[in-house]
Structure formats: C-alpha cells, structure tokens
Inverse folding.
C-alpha cells in the first residue's frame, strides 16, 4: 500500500501542468557563485560581439578588397578575421573553466542539501517511499540538472544576444530582406511553446519510469539472497524487463518530441534562406545591394537560426531539467512529521525511568491501532522483556521510545519528561538500540565500533570488547579489528556482527538499552557466548528486551505480554506461568520449538 501511495505522487507529478518554479528555485543555489557567473556572462557578451564581427569583416574584405583587387587590404582583413577567431577561442577556454567550477559547486551544494534533508526525514517517510526512488532523486535527478545549471544561463544570454544583434545588423543592410526573416519568428515561437508543453510531460514520465526502475534494482539487489533461495530470478528479471521497456518507451517519446521540433527549426531556416538568396540576388543584379552585403546577410541568417537551434537545444535540456528539478524539490519540500520542539529540553544524566501512559498509535489514518491504550513503567536499572506474537506491538514500543514516530494519544516519558519535549540529541545519546539484524557500514571492524563514539581510542575499544567478553570473537577474525566487514557487514557471521553492535553500544554508554530481537537469529552455541555479553552490557541500565527465546525472557525482572496492541499480562516468569494465561500459552508454543529456543 505504501508503495502505491508513493507511485501516486509520481503519477500526479507526471500529469501536472508545466511550471517553471522549480527551475527558478535553483537560483538560490546559484546565488553564492554569482561573481564567477556574472564574469562569465560579461565575457560571453564580448564573445558575441567578436562573433558578430565575422560577417562584417567578410563583407569588408569582399567589397573593399576582393572586388577592387586591393589584395593587401584583403590580407589585412583576413589577418583581423584570424585574430578575432583566436581571441574567441581563448575566451571560450576561460569561460569553460569558470562555468564548470561554479556549476559543479552548485550541484555539490544541491546534492548536499538533498542528502542532509533526507537524513532529517522521519521513519514514516521511508516506510511509504521505496529506497530506490529516494536514490534516484538524490543521484540521477540532480545529475540531470548539470547541463542546464552549467551552460543554461550563458547559452540563454549568448543565443538571445546574437539573435538580437544579428537581426539588427540585417536591418542595417536591408530592411525588406530582414522582414522576410523576422516573419518566420512568430510561427517558430508558437511551435516552440507547443513542443515545450508536450515535451515536459514526456520528460516527466521518463523520469518517473526511471525512478521505478531504480527502485526495482535496489530492491532486487538488497533481496538477492531471498530471490535466489526462492528460485524467483526469472520473475525478477521479467519484472525488470517490463520496467526497462516502460522507461525505453517513455524515453523514446521524450526524444521524439525533440526530434519533431528540430525539423521545424530547419524548415524555417531553409525557407528563409531560399527567399533571401532569391530576393537578394535580384537586388545585387539591380545594384541596390553589394555582393559582400549579400554574403554577410546570408552569414547573418545562420547567426539568426543557429541561436534559435541553440535555444532549442537549451529548451530540450530545460525540459529534462525542469522534470528533474520538480522531483528534487518535491523531496526537499517533504517535511518530517516528527520535529524537535523549539523549547526542547536536554537531560544530562537521566536515571533511565521509562513510562508509557495510555499510549495509542497507528501507522496511518486508516491503519489499525498498533498500540491501543498501553500503559507500563520500567524503573531505572530494571530489565523488562516484551513478548508476544508477531504484530502484537512490541517493536512499535521501541520506535515510539526512540521517537522514530510520535504517539497519537497518550505520552511516552523518559525520567518523567515527555520524549516530545526532549531534544533529539538527548534521546539518541541516552537510548541505545541493538536490532535483530545488526547493521554495519562498509569499513573495518574498528571503524564500526567507533561509530557510536567517534572520539574513542583503540585501547578503549579493545577494553570494552574485553569487558563484554567479545574480544576473543573479534580478534579471531582474519585481520582482527582491522578486518573489512564488507557492505552491510556481509563478510562477518551474524554472531560476529552482533558482537560488534554490543561493543558499539557499550562505548556509547546509553542509560536505556533496547535489545530488539537481538539474539533471535543466533545458533545456540553463539547465543550462549553472547548472552554473557548482553548481561554485562545491561548491568546498571534500564533494559527493554524484545525477544522470543526463553533464554533471554526468563532472566528479565519483569515480563510484559502483548496481544493486539495491548499489555494483557505483567509479572515475572514464574508468576506468569502460574496464572495459566497468555504467557503460559506462549510458553507452551515455545516448548514445541527446537531445543535451542529453551536454552537457558
């Protein structure tokens, strides 16, 4: 359902009316580099004047040199023409360096802004948005802005100035011939606007289809183990082929709009050229126009339609850029639903009392209640186990305590303070979470251990591992603490990854420790090795254990039994068994499982 919701956003964006506001917003990213950009634009004006001097030099050389057999004068004009061309080449090289550096800085700032913004979005955004679609907007959509950001302003200025000055120069030679050329402009402008509207919709669709394809790639790569284990490679390939075909078709449609526009420009150019040559030739024969003036006029004709063609190229780039910019700024406009209060408090050394007071929560307006009137308190230093079948609400408790989401009703408190009134830094510093599938980042074991506390020295890290009893496990790795863990920790066993997560949590010294199914995927031998580490890690800390295995549950001072989003029983292992209720039924279910579930 969440994926469908995100796809509706793509559909709406693809059908929306053309709007240049997204491109205008790029101006805020260009502003810090306006100095180099203005200099490049000034140099472009000089380049345009130099460029337009060409036809005048040709006319001068023909009429005053060639036609009058003044070959010395002709040589002088040719030399001036060559120097003029070399000067333009030097200007282009300098402009290229200015624009490339400034443009890349703009794109880097935009990438940084998008990535930083994504880091601040809350979990409900990632719940409803596919990973690949976020990546597509952060990466490929920003890339699509490159040509427009770097060359767009200069191309627009250059083409517009050359076009205007060329028409003015034409009028100086002959007004009637100029009218022939200008008469084509309204038709060309009308055609351009029609193609712009068609092209923008086509490019929006292409960007949306590319986003879907990227999302499938990301999902398939992340889930490759499941795909291969289930023998579903062919299905994954078939789905990918369908998405590739959709992107190909939408890409072809987008390019087809541009391909149809180019012949329209060339048609106007060809008709104008033929008329100018016919009428201008008759004027030369009648003596009202010189040969050099006709040649210069024909050169200027190219100077009119070449800028129009460049503007067409720019228009094509802007279509793609506008579609991409809309998607980038749509992401930047996404607002987190969980925000820090302006007057949020910090807790320097909380005791670690956790309280849920009549909490109700659901993941969406139409979703069922994940927690429905949950109330309990865990005292500082106490260990509480949360048990229940899948979907009973245990992990939701963890998410609300960490404030990945906000409650709908009631309150979650740390040391009597509503977590909504506390700073995010307080919650992240004093609440440590060890998930079921310990996530490691690419790098060495030591890099990952230091992730929780970047200023920790190597000696402190090794001491922490020894304190938890994990040193032998980690030092036995091929290169010890310098072992590369690979992407997502794929080069380590599950037990080794969990050991890294335990030591990482100890280094962070949280007051509240959450073990979210932290040993559920371990074999019995590895679990026994790490259970002692967990006990040491939990010493003196308020600990919430989300677990199935009785080896973890039985050691808890208090057990909270969840059913359908409610706490239905609370007590220790023996007292709950004696009641013969929900916990006793869970216990009976566990006894039917393999022996390692009962390891104590």
């Amino acid at each position: 359902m969440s994926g469908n919701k995100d796809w509706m956003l793509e559909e709406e964006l693809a059908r929306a009316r053309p709007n240049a506001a997204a491109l205008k917003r790029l101006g805020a990213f260009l502003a810090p580099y306006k100095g180099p950009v203005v200099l490049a634009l000034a140099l472009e004006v000089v380049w345009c004047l130099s460029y337009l001097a060409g036809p005048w030099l040709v006319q001068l050389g023909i009429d005053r040199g060639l036609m009058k057999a003044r070959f010395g004068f002709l040589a002088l004009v040719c030399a001036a023409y060559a120097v003029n061309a070399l000067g333009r080449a030097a200007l282009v090289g300098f402009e290229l360096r200015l624009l490339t550096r400034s443009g890349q800085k703009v794109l880097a700032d935009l990438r940084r802004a998008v990535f930083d913004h994504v880091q601040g979005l809350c979990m409900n955004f990632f719940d409803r948005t596919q990973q690949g679609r976020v990546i597509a907007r952060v990466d490929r959509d920003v890339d699509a802005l490159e040509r427009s950001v770097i060359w767009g302003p200069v191309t627009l200025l250059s083409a517009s100035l050359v076009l205007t000055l060329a028409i003015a120069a034409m009028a100086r030679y002959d007004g009637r011939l100029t009218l022939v050329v200008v008469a084509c402009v309204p038709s060309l402008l009308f055609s351009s606007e029609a193609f712009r509207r068609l092209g923008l919709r086509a490019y929006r669709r292409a960007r949306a289809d590319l986003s879907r394809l990227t999302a499938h790639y990301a999902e398939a790569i992340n889930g490759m183990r499941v795909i291969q284990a289930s023998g579903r490679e062919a299905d994954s390939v078939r789905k990918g082929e369908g998405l590739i075909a959709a992107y190909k078709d939408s890409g072809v449609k987008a390019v087809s709009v541009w391909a149809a526009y180019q012949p329209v420009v060339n048609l106007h150019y060809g008709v104008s050229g033929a008329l100018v040559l016919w009428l201008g030739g008759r004027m030369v024969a009648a003596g009202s126009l010189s040969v050099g003036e006709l040649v210069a006029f024909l050169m200027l004709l190219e100077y009119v339609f070449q800028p129009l063609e460049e503007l067409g190229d720019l228009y094509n780039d802007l279509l793609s850029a506008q579609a991409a910019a809309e998607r980038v700024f749509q992401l930047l406009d996404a607002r987190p639903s969980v925000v820090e209060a302006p007057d949020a408090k910090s807790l320097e050394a909380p005791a670690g009392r956790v309280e849920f007071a009549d909490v109700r929560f659901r993941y969406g307006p139409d979703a069922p209640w994940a927690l429905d009137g949950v109330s309990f308190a865990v005292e500082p230093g106490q260990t509480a186990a949360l048990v229940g079948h899948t979907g009973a609400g245990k992990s939701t408790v963890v998410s609300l305590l960490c404030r990945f989401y906000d409650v709908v009703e009631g309150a979650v408190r740390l040391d009597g303070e509503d977590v909504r009134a506390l700073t995010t830094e307080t919650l992240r510093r004093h609440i440590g979470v060890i998930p079921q599938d310990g996530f490691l980042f690419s790098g060495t074991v030591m890099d990952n251990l230091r992730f929780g506390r970047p200023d920790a020295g190597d000696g402190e890290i090794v001491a922490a591992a020894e304190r938890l009893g994990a040193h032998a496990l980690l030092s036995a790795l091929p290169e010890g603490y310098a072992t590369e863990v690979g992407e997502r920790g794929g080069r380590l066993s599950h037990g080794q990854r969990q050991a890294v997560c335990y030591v990482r949590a100890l280094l962070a010294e949280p007051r509240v420790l959450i073990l979210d199914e932290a040993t559920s995927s371990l074999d019995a031998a590895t679990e026994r090795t790490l259970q002692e580490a967990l006990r040491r890690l939990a010493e003196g800390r308020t600990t919430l254990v989300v677990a199935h295995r009785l080896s973890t549950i039985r050691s808890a001072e208090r057990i909270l039994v969840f059913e359908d989003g409610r706490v239905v029983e609370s007590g220790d292992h023996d007292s709950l068994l004696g009641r013969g209720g929900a916990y006793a039924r869970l216990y009976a279910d566990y006894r039917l499982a393999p022996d390692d579930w009962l390891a104590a």
